[in-house]
Amino acid sequence: MEHIKRNSWSIINSVILIGLAIMFFIASNNKERVVYIDNVKLYNEFNMTKELGDINEKKYKPFLVKFDSIVNKLKTFEEKLNGQKKISKKEEEEYIKLKRLVVSGDAEIQDLRTQVKMEINKKVWERLNTYVREFGKERNYDVVLGAQGQGNIMYSKEEFNVTDEFIEYANSKYEGN
What we know:
Distance between the termini: 70 Å
Low-confidence stretches: 23-28
Strand content: 5-15%
């Protein structure tokens, strides 16, 4: 009985040692794959960003044309008033009205641009985040980091920068390829 007990412990110890050796071998050969993407470059070179920017610019172009005509009218009116020695009450009221239109129009344009930019950013990053997950899984990366050029990745070997490869991948997916 003592002999069987000793053999059992020997077998158990052998199995444990073999298991540890296998785990050590797997751990030493399992290199983590960490890469990064330059988010600024990605955003600027992603076709969807460009297309949405162009579409939205066309949407508010008529508003900008109208605003520019009001600004030009104000400038012309100011030049006329600067050449006069005396300004009538009617001219002063018209000038104030035009000035208010320019100020309020400028504020509207700024609000519109901010709103459009936020909408574009949301749509673009939703799409890009989906593509990043797919890209990482397809290439068996453990981690895909996003760098913005503001110090979150201070140094990396260039081989870990997959920005250009991902831009090509994302644009291809976006175009339906």
